[in-house]
# Entry
Amino acid sequence: MGIVIKQTSKNIFTISIALLIGGLNTLYFYPEFLKDEYYGLVVFLLATSNLLQPLMSLGAQHTIIKFYSSFKDKVSKDAFLSSIIFIPLIIIIPITFFVVKAHDLIGEFLSVQNPIIESYVWVIFLVSFATSYFEVFYAWSRVHLKSVFGNILKEIYPRVSVMILLLLVSFDFLTKEGFVWWLTGLYYLRLIIMIVYSFSIYVPKFSFKLPQNFKEILSYSIYILLAGSAASLLIDIDKYMIPQKEAISQTAYYAVAVFIATVVEIPGRAMFQILNPMVAKAINNNDFQELNNLYQKSSSNLLIVSGFFFLLINLNISSFYLLMNNELYSDAILVVLMISLAKLIQMSFGCGPAILATSSFYKITLPFSIAMAISVYFLNDVLIDLYGINGAAISTLIVLSVFTFLKVLFIKHKLKINPYNFNSIKIILIVMLMYLSISYVGFMHSAFIDIVLRSVIVSIIYIGLVYYLNLSTAINNIIKSLFKR
# Structure
């Protein structure tokens, strides 16, 4: 786990910096300079492009991670990489043709509730193309166990780009309409940088020779395409459906709450960049002892660190919203609680998603993803009408909780391995008891001072309990090394 901890630590630092920049954008610059309507528009456009991205990439990034370590010589690796970068074009070319022919029809369909959307249909497809190929070349670097630079481009680059563009809007150097198109262009600059970096790591000898198992590779790509498309609905369907039922400004309030809540998954996002290729390698080598080791350690470590973030967020959320200029955003406090709880449950699954996606029974990801997408769609359709944006959060919590449990049972049935142990129960009890005992305690009239004091107290108690109970050897070693320094 040495390389995992090392690169995870770097990736957590990168994502934390990105979070600070993104927080400034999300909580201040966006609402202040774009206002609710254009902020909601940008959220909608990016969310919809994310829904399309798995289709555009044809699952190529996941295919690289699953199959690359199965090739043992340079010739076969080169043939694989040469063919995989052209696979997304199978989908991209016909989609581009369709958009050209049906642009006006698509615009009318998307802008029924909010006419402002109609002028930006091409943004959705252009951004999804750029992000699709970015993920392909990011996977190229990850299979060589080089995840840090790509993670900087993935996490920090777009947020810095947004900040610069928003500042230009604030000084009237750029219009709100220009912001959208410049942001689209900067996604393509990021793609070019990622391509150059990937080729600096490894340049294959390009050929038109297909790998011997190309049919298996293409079949896997199609399955992952379908599963990824369905899974992406779960991530962004709420941001798509809210503008169809509520004012588009509600999407902005919801987006801020979700942004805050997803801090809980930072450790997972950091760890999976390096862990997923290692899971694929263990499976390709039939090393199930190593796989079980990765499964249990990733679950425990993520549950500990994500649980810590869960407490910091939810115990400070009321004070945090007081610091914002717009009190309307604080109506989404329950959204923060429910989404962060859903993410905590998801993180407790450890590297389970990678096991499902890279194992011989990867086809199960498709019915799981479809069932999750259908469930969240129908729950959203009912609960958004009843509870507004809180209804969308309830839907996400229900679906993630139920299907994480089902996935744990499935892997247990197939491989006889389980991510949880007695320490998992201890961690959950610590998180629950600390939340219940501290959530109603106030320290100062100043929201800022209240956040600082509460965070210090939570940190001392939580880290102390984790260390004293020895809930994770890896985390205890990190704590020891920090104290030595």
